[in-house]
Write a structure and sequence with these properties.
Number of helices: 8
Structural class: alpha+beta
Number of strands: 7
Radius of gyration: 26 Å
Distance between the termini: 82 Å
Order of helices and strands: HHEHEEHEHHHHEEE
Length: 235
């Protein structure tokens, strides 16, 4: 009698385990997702640090903004034409969007062009966004991805692009080049401003000298967060 009770208990436990495993598999099939390591690529993180310096604290920067949250099909289109126009922007995004701090109105969109933009499909996408932004009056500023940037050059290019768009547009120039002109000049002369942004953690970098190996005695840029981050950039 005892053996019968034990056998029934074992069967019950096995059935419960099978049911839980099946439930877990069904849940996994309903939500087949995983967490990505970071919102930005190393190049985007690096450029974001430069953008923060270039536009100052009086503006808001947003990343990975859906184009459909910035642009919309114009009024007067029939339903089919409206849907077609919307579909073209619904699955695209801007790398960064610069907004006014008060009402978060869009001042300009910013694109960072890496090597992937040399592909035909990316070039078609870039041409479409340029046309859509021009038609809607949203300045679009593009920068090539590179190892190091000058915050003052970035600020000047943004200011040039938005100078004729609205009354609020020239403010980045006023902050970055007029109000802080003396500081910007000092920054350009300093080693810190000339230093690149770490491609791994987007932190600052310091000039270092290799102490051993085949490159002993040669200078290079090393991440200031070493040894937590071991990002390096050739001098």
């Amino acid at each position: 009698m005892v053996w019968i009770v034990l056998a029934v208990a074992v069967v019950a436990v096995l059935l419960l385990l099978i049911a839980k495993q099946k439930q877990s598999q069904e849940a996994a099939s309903d939500f087949p997702y995983k967490k990505l390591p970071a919102l930005f690529t190393p190049a985007e993180r690096s450029f974001l640090g430069v953008l923060d310096q270039a536009v100052g604290k009086d503006f808001r920067l947003f990343g990975k903004v859906r184009v459909a949250d910035v642009l919309a099909p114009r009024e007067g289109l029939n339903k089919s034409a409206w849907q077609t126009a919307f579909n073209k922007i619904n699955r695209k995004h801007f790398d960064f969007v610069l907004c006014a701090p008060g009402d978060l109105s869009v001042i300009c969109a910013i694109e960072l062009n890496d090597q992937s933009h040399q592909k035909k499909n990316r070039q078609d996408r870039d041409a479409f966004l340029a046309g859509a932004c021009a038609a809607s009056g949203v300045p679009l500023v593009s920068f090539p991805a590179q190892h190091a940037y000058s915050a003052s050059d970035v600020s000047a290019k943004i200011a040039e692009a938005i100078s004729g768009s609205s009354a609020a547009a020239p403010k980045p120039v006023e902050i970055a080049t007029q109000t802080d002109a003396r500081q910007a000049e000092q920054d350009l002369m300093s080693e810190t401003d000339a230093a690149p942004i770490c491609p791994r953690c987007a932190g600052s970098m310091l000039k270092r000298t290799a102490k051993g190996g085949t490159n002993a005695g040669q200078e290079f840029w090393g991440c200031a967060n070493f040894p937590t981050c071991r990002g390096i950039v050739a001098l």
